[in-house]
């Protein structure tokens, strides 16, 4: 079990970061863009940052999911298969990431996230209302739950957007309904990954507990906005978050090469 001394100022900063991340995450995903750098800046190792991020993400996704379930937007009885396959996928991904390098995935991920942003930007009528469903039962569970759950356990960034995209494009749900269902599967895959990190002893509980509270509060506020503002809020948020996430991921992958190139031009 990992612990870290936390000053009042650091605790307040981490709480506010988690609050904002929870709000963004419940609407469009991508909250990890804020929380993981904050955890690294607080002095956690990369492994500790990823593990502790899963802990606070579980709090946010659970808070949003509970809100959507209580408002009867999501019926858990209809999602049992999706939840089960998602959990299995996320555990498999979390197990595999401990033995396989994710370099190839890091190269491909910015392109995938850009594609999601362009999909919602260039197809403005998608998600306005429910449409005909394309996949049912186990096939949908394997694609949306198994594949995205595996990705979330293995790597993680943008998983909420991938879940929402699956519900919009394959289930034919409107955007608000897709976002609500996406949070349930996002909570499931976060939980699966967290269990593996807890077993590995990488979670820093003192930091994670503070951010957990912030995530819960932020996610509840964001969930309310999803149902009150719907597509008018979710679509631009997904496009903006996808653009920012893609830029950061591209920089993380190629930042050093870009800096060398610019330094060569200036010399």
Report on the architecture of this protein.
The chain is mainly alpha-helical. It contains ten helices and no strands. It has helices spanning 8-28, 32-41, 46-70, 80-97, 103-122, 137-154, 159-171, 175-200, 205-229, 231-266. Helix 3 crosses helix 8 (175-200) and helix 7 (159-171) packs across helix 8. The longest helix has 36 residues, at 231-266. The protein starts with 7 loop residues before the first helix and ends with a helix. Residues 258-262 have low confidence and may be disordered.
Structure summary:
This protein has 10 helices and no strands. The protein is mainly α. Helix 3 packs across helix 8.
Q: pLDDT average, as an integer?
A: 78
Share in β-strands: under 5%
Q: First CA to last CA: what distance?
A: 49 Å
Quickly give the structural class: mainly alpha
Q: How would you summarize the topology of this molecule?
A:
Elements: H1 8-28, H2 32-41, H3 46-70, H4 80-97, H5 103-122, H6 137-154, H7 159-171, H8 175-200, H9 205-229, H10 231-266
Helix pairs in contact: 1-2, 1-3, 1-9, 2-3, 3-8, 3-9, 4-6, 4-8, 5-10, 6-7, 6-8, 7-8
Question: What distinguishing features does this structure have?
Answer:
0% strand, 10 helices, 267 residues, single chain, mainly alpha
